[in-house]
């Protein structure tokens, strides 16, 4: 008779296999959803990931649950990149990197973001918004202290500009997926200190801005 199996010896490999399968499904889902929106089925994703269909359904009840996981993974990567941008010593360079970090995945994942907008009560949005706002506040504070960003610019101004860029991506992204990149330098030039044209109306307060973003100001 062989040695008795230690408790947990077979459990750990199974857990590692399960973790690998989940990562493979998320990677395959990201690839297929980016290419074809939400049209691929969970069976399609399983085949691309090289796992059995039963394995896919043990991890995700349906493709929408997988889409949530793909978005969560993508948001983690986006937020890490945005926070690196917010730590840049040169605030204007950091703001350029921040715009790129936040807008690039929006342009690449339009179908998934449409799905997220249709389910606004998901757990992702509040944490994402809080961390993005913190990045903006850090960049504005540093840039205004450095004298490179206009003193009257507020975080809600940046939020409105981000909403405008999202609308641009939604409107033109299918036909011209990189068009948004043309307008980032224009935004940055408008935020630089020394611009001679004063802003004619005051900024939105944070509460006003959030109400409008959430559709409560109509």
UniProtKB/TrEMBL annotation:
PROSITE patterns: HTH_TETR_1 (PS01081), HTH_TETR_2 (PS50977). Residues 41-60 bind DNA. Gene3D superfamilies: Tetracycline Repressor, domain 2. InterPro entries: DNA-bd_HTH_TetR-type_CS (IPR023772), Homeodomain-like_sf (IPR009057), HTH-type_TetR-like_transc_reg (IPR050109), HTH_TetR (IPR001647), Tet_transcr_reg_TetR-rel_C_sf (IPR036271), TetR_SbtR-like_C (IPR049445). Keywords: DNA-binding, Transcription, Transcription regulation. Residues 19-78 form the HTH tetR-type domain. Pfam families: TetR_C_43 (PF21597), TetR_N (PF00440). This is TetR/AcrR family transcriptional regulator.
């Amino acid at each position: 008779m062989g040695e008795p199996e230690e408790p947990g010896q077979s459990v750990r490999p199974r857990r590692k296999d399960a973790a690998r399968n989940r990562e493979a499904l998320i990677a395959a889902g990201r690839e297929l959803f980016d290419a074809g929106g939400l049209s691929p089925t969970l069976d399609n994703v399983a085949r691309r990931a090289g796992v059995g269909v039963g394995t896919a359904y043990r991890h995700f009840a349906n493709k929408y649950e997988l889409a949530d996981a793909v978005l969560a993974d993508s948001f983690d990567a986006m937020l890490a990149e945005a926070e690196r941008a917010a730590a840049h010593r040169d605030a204007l360079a950091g703001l350029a990197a921040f715009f790129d970090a936040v807008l690039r995945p929006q342009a690449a994942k339009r179908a998934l973001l449409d799905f997220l907008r249709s389910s606004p009560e998901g757990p992702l949005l509040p944490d994402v918004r809080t961390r993005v706002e913190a990045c903006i506040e850090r960049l504005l504070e540093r840039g205004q202290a450095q004298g490179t960003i206009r003193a009257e610019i507020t975080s809600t101004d940046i939020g409105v500009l981000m909403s405008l860029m999202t609308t641009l991506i939604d409107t033109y992204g299918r036909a011209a997926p990189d068009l948004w990149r043309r307008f980032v330098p224009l935004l940055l030039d408008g935020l630089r200190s020394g611009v001679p044209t004063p802003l004619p109306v005051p900024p939105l307060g944070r509460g006003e801005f959030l109400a409008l973003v959430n559709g409560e100001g109509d």
